[in-house]
Write a structure and sequence with these properties.
Layout lengths: L1 H18 L5 H4 L4 E6 L6 E10 L2 E9 L27 E9 L2 E9 L4 E9 L5 E7 L6 E8 L1
Antiparallel strand pairs: 1-2, 1-8, 2-3, 3-4, 4-5, 5-6, 6-7, 7-8
């Protein structure tokens, strides 16, 4: 009898865990969440970006800036063009249009507020879900640079 109960319990456990909201690797590998951006040249934390999903596409908004210019606690994107010109960086959407493609998210864009330039973008979450490789590039992904962001 105990053997039968154990078999039923073991067979039902995955469904029970799913029903209770317990999941494993799939959620850890999601880029949705809050990330510290790390400057690929200095290694210092630059900002905090919140990545969310909207209609199957990812977007990232700046929540905090760690090293604003000396004249402002909330810098503006003075080098940006169009709708972002002279707008505050905090609260600005700097990443948009990324769609899942296998284990990466591609097809989107990312803005570098310091330079006011927009690049094509693709991202990939590390296997442990603690870091995010963010690749900004022009034309082909080979011509660009990668930053590693850290989950907050």
């Amino acid at each position: 009898m105990q053997s039968i109960v154990r078999k039923i319990f073991c067979a039902a456990l995955p469904g029970l865990l799913f029903f209770c909201g317990v999941t494993f690797a799939a959620d850890g590998a999601s880029p949705v969440g809050v990330w510290k951006t790390i400057d690929d040249k200095t290694g210092k934390v630059k900002s905090v970006v919140h990545i969310s999903e909207n209609g199957g596409e990812l977007q990232g908004k700046v929540e905090k800036v760690f090293s604003p210019p000396a004249d402002s606690e909330n810098p503006v994107c003075d080098k940006c063009e169009g709708e972002r010109k002279d707008k505050p960086v905090i609260g600005m959407t700097i990443m948009w249009g990324l769609k899942k493609d296998g284990d990466e998210y591609k097809g989107g864009h990312i803005l570098d507020p310091a330079e006011g330039k927009t690049y094509k973008c693709k991202i990939k979450v590390s296997d442990d879900g603690k870091s995010l490789n963010v690749r900004g590039y022009i034309g082909f992904a080979l011509i660009g640079r990668t930053q590693t962001w850290v989950r907050e």
